[in-house]
Model the fold of this input.
Amino acid sequence: MSELLSVEKAVLDYLVKVNRPYSANDISSQLHGLVSPAQAKKLLNDLADEKKLERKINGKQQIFYAIQTSIEVPSVEEAEQEEETIRGLEQQLSQAKDENKVLAGRLQGLTNALTDDQMRERIAKLSAEVKENEGRLTQLRSGEVISPEEKNNIETEHAAMTKHWKARKRMFKNIIDTIGEGYPGKISDLFEELGIETDEDVCADVAIIGDK
Done:
């Protein structure tokens, strides 16, 4: 008998606590097998017959829920205290989020930091670059800016580029002359409309550059 009363109390307390409707199967599951579905169904119906629970029948399904008047309504003072507690917890949550952002940033920084091996490799590479730059600086100070071989390569490349420039300039002039024969306006206006810049616009003279 005492065991039955204990089970009844557990069911009643649970329904009051959650304050939502449940079927007999739900109660059996939520109480983790304290009662079987069949036992829960009988117990819930007995409690409903005793007016300790509300019962609603929908077809073959029965659901049970706590009588609303049995649920304790907090006083104004208790409600205000609960609200104050909630505000305090929200503030703590906000602070925790801010601290989490700071820690996440630090973790990201540590994750992106170089390992010891990467640091040694980086130092070795930078040391080699410094040594190379010091050699160049010494060469500049001595007046030996470039070697004869480098000078010859530069002049050869310059001559080739100038040749290409002249060839393309001739091609462009032939195309413009052809267009100009049938164009009703000024070629300069066409250039401006199409956003074309000529050598003259940028003060570049292939003849002068080619002679250098």
About this structure: Helices lie at 2-18, 24-30, 37-49, 76-112, 116-141, 148-182, 187-194, 206-211. DSSP finds eight helices and two strands in the chain. Strands lie at 53-58, 61-66. The radius of gyration is 45 Å.
